[in-house]
Amino acid sequence: MRNDDRDVTYVEQDGGSTAKWFLFGALVGAGLGLLFAPQSGERTRRDITRRANKLRRDAEDRFEEVVDEVETRGRKAKERVEEWAEDVADEVREGRRTIERTANSARDELERRLADARARRRAAVDAVVGDDGGTA
Asked: Is the pTM of this model over 0.70?
């Protein structure tokens, strides 16, 4: 009797989407059906050529649709980025105006207080000089 302590691991690989395999099977089945159909070789070749040309045209049409879709999405994305950039620029301009208004208001308030302080100082000096009788 053999004592084997090794673990056994089973790996299950994903075979892809079911739709892909269904389409692949349909294409293979159609090809085999053409090859084994009870018709002449020349007619079979014509059918294969015609169907291959149709598949090529369909693929080209689909490719053009994808290109158009990518271009449309790219254009829309560019427009959204440009709108966003303009919105940001507007916000920056508004922020700058707000800062300027606040700074001007603060400067005006500081100048007013400074003028009040100077007036009080002059009044105090005048009061001292006036009490003194103008003699020093």
From this structure: no
Residue 69 tokens read as 């879709």
Q: What is the mean pLDDT of residues 49-68?
A: 89
Amino acid at 37: A
Take residue 78 and report the two structure tokens written for it.
């560019």
**CB atoms inside a 10 Å sphere around CB 129:** 12
Residue 15: inside a domain: no
Residue 15 makes CB contacts below 8 A (sequence gap 6+) with 21
Domain limits for position 119 = 41-132
Euclidean distance between CA atoms 75 and 120, whole angstroms:
67
Interatomic CA distance for residues 55 and 26, integer angstroms: 14
Domain count, the chain: 1
